[in-house]
Amino acid sequence: MNYTAAYKVALEKFRACSLEDMARCSGYSIEGNALVLEFLGQHFKIDYPGGKFVPMNTSDGELPIAAQILILHYVSNLSEPLEVGKFISFKELPGGAIYIKPFTGRAIDPLVRVFGSDPDSLLEVVTRLGGQSNGLGDVGVTYRVFPRIPVALILWRADDEFPASGNILFDASAPLILPTEDFAVLASMVVFGLKRIKAML
Fold first, then answer.
1. Which end of the chain, C or N, has fewer beta carbons within 10 A?
2. What is the mean pLDDT of residues 66-81?
3. Domain named DUF3786: which ranges (predicted)?
4. pTM, rounded to two decimals
């Protein structure tokens, strides 16, 4: 996929916002002329107004452009919706029912493939990132990908009748923060980010 046009649009919106407004609405802090953020265990500064992502540690590497676009979308949304505390599924997001099959293939199926045979490892990985158990499913965890976006990842263990299964849920405030297609990207990135961390344990 060619992300160049989407990146350019996201960067223009980022530059049109003030650093102070983005910090207040995103939940990130300001250091110098940059926002400081953590994303799936890696730490970056977003230079303002340039929009360049600068790794804070040598181990942080570079962020894929799709992740940069997602983060730019998040920080430049200056609405401040209240977290509802109720989780909804992807198909409950606006237009989500139409894209549930691709969402399942991109996020839920990989979640089950990576963690379904050892659900407790999901709790271990997410706990390392500051997430916590949520009591859903056989193993359920809540992880804040962004300060205002908690994501629930849920697994059910395999038994004699059914294979392992899973689901990924979002706070009901989610549609006010990002468009539905961004949540498909976000969920996929979370799963593969957790897979990366699991491989390092």
1. N
2. 95
3. 19-191
4. 0.94
Q: Cβ distance 41 to 51 under 8 Å?
A: no
Q: Which pLDDT tens digit goes with each residue over 1-36?
A: 678 999 999 999 999 999 999 999 999 999 999 999
Angle separating helix axes 119-128 and 180-200, nearest 10 degrees: 100
DSSP code per residue over 117-184: T-HHHHHHHHHHTT-EE---SSEEEEEEEETTEEEEEEEE---SSS--EEEEEEETTGGGTS-HHHHH
Tokens 């691709």 map to which residue?
102
Containing 35, the helix (H) or strand (E) segment is strand 34-39
Q: In the structure, what pLDDT confidence band is assigned to residue 61 with cuts at 50, 70 and 90?
A: confident
The C-alpha atoms of residue 148 and residue 171 are separated, in whole angstroms, by 9
Place of tokens 């929009």: 51
Instruction: Look at the block and give the residue holding tokens 């979640």.
Output: 111
Q: Which two tokens stand for residue 54?
A: 């600068």
Report DSSP letters for 39-64, one per residue. ETTEEEEEETTT--EEESSGGG----
CB 89 within 8 A of CB 102: no
The residue type of 51 is: G
